[in-house]
Amino acid sequence: AERNKEILKGLLNFVSIPITVILSAVDKLRNSLGGTSTLLEDYKDKTGKGREHLIRIEIRDKLKELCPNFYALVKKNYSSQIRNAIAHSQYGFLNRRISLTNYHKDENKYRPIQSLSYEEWEERFHDVVLIYNAMIGQEIHFRRLYEASSFDKHYGLQIRVTKDDGDEKTQWYKYDPDRKNWGYHRG
Prior knowledge:
Elements: H1 2-32, H2 40-47, H3 51-60, H4 63-66, H5 68-77, H6 80-87, E1 91-94, E2 97-100, E3 115-117, H7 118-151, E4 157-162, E5 168-176, E6 181-184
Antiparallel strand pairs: 1-2, 2-3, 4-5, 5-6
């Protein structure tokens, strides 16, 4: 029983971290398609609103039109309450359930989950692994496409780069198959 609890704790952390990483990657992708950048680190400082607002309004809800199926998966599986409970160790195991101690009956709009059965958790875990796996597969697919398309171009591909200060510029990047990495043209 104790070993099962340790495994569940590991799985809790596995799901909590990748979904935030996934949403950050989606935000960067949305930005590259002409949206506005919303860096997770700077958002609260600039707006005074928290991570939950950033993820729900600025990232997830803006995907609704762009990719409705992905929007539905994120809406179903991402819960700021669960993320916060895991990040701050506000959960416990009791009778094959994961109880969230950050549940609040008066604030159930934002913290509606009192507990999850292991089966409910397993379904969320499964969906997050599928999302993560699909994103890794797509990254590999597009990386190979870009690598191949840069071979016949002398300087490579022109890429828009956003600096830390928000300034944007374009640079030429070319894939080096011998080193298996990208480098930029300094000319």
